[in-house]
Amino acid sequence: MGAALQRSLELDARYAWPTYARKPVLFVRGSGMRLYDDDGAEYLDFVSGIGVVNLGHAHPAVTRAVRDQVERLVHVSNLYHVEHRAELEQRLCALFGEPSRVFLCNSGTEAVEAAIKVARAWGRRMRGEQCFRIVAAERSFHGRTFGALSATGQASKQQKFEPLLPGFTHVPLNDVAALERAMGPDVCAVLLEPIQGEGGVFPCDPEYLRAARSLCDEHGALLVLDEVQTGMHRTGPLFAHQGYQVRPDVMTLAKALASGLPVGAVVARADVAEVLEPGDHGSTFAGGPVVCAAALATLDALERERLGENATRAGEFLHEALVRFGERSGLVAEVRGRGLMVGATLSRPVAKQVADAALERRILLNAIGEEIIRFLPPLVCTESEIDTLIGVLDDISKGL
Fold first, then answer.
1. Architecture label for domain 3-55+306-398
2. Domain ranges, ordered by start, for the chain
3. Annotated active-site positions, please?
4. What is the pTM of this model?
5. Average pLDDT, whole number, for the chain?
6. Which segments of 144-203 does DSSP mark as H helices, in order?
7. H or E segment and range at residue 323
8. Backbone φ and ψ of 99, nearest 5°
């Protein structure tokens, strides 16, 4: 263990809130699919900072954009106009489909909070003050601030913080009948992840998402899709809902939008966004020139390098490779996902042991609970790097 890691472990144990169980490794540099620790050891990254560095680590175009902007201006608040913000707003609305409007924020949970607020304001405007209920899915994850936590369908993440924000109903994912029963005149929105990420990589069935769209139209409710993890070509298309051919009324983004800088966005139909007025919502840091420059550079690079195509191609290769590995080892019960957002349910509760053993072999994996491994590599991932991963998994499986 290097001196820098040892000092970080000691200081963290003494001063940080005990909210993370960090792995004993300290990274100091990255490039593409690779990370390097304080001793210079190289690792293959199949986590991407939890689905954030879709372009790979330290992408040169994003680095240049950030450096150029930091040298000129970092922050003035939303009291004034700054470079890049309006261009990013226009870009996101065009990608979502116009007429639409966007609110910029700092994170995924903030984006969900803003989506909840606009949905409730819209419900009140359209159908009165009793129209505030939001239907979400069991096992979902929408964030850790109070509104987003209340929308989350995981009791284990909520119990310490009850009572939660009222007005949320949770139904089983992909159960159309249950969703239909949950609808009513007091429902202002249905909130779904196209693929549940933190819950274990569980995709919406295409017919379920289409049914959700139809039920929202029938009942006069908004369809809000949380694309914080599925957006930015993670599943192949720029936004996962495009692969389902279902257009939401409101969409949340964050994570990979600025390649690791803190930015989130909520894009909504223009008539929905226009229920708000100055003072109804805001943020001191949101939409600053540095993060907006990074987001624009990220969008440009994703398009220029055609990483959506690679996400689809490499994702199919990864999916098939994991299935074959499961057949050889007997360790994998199911593989699911889209693009380079893949989950593998193991046949035994050894996910954490697998992830820890992979880290020892310098491969980063993300264990969800005891039985699921989530694979979220940068979208520059190659078949050769996937082959390396599978070789490591083969080796690990022999020792379990």
1. Alpha-Beta Complex (3.90)
2. 3-55+306-398, 62-304
3. 141, 226, 255
4. 0.97
5. 98
6. 146-151, 176-182
7. helix 307-329
8. -75, 130
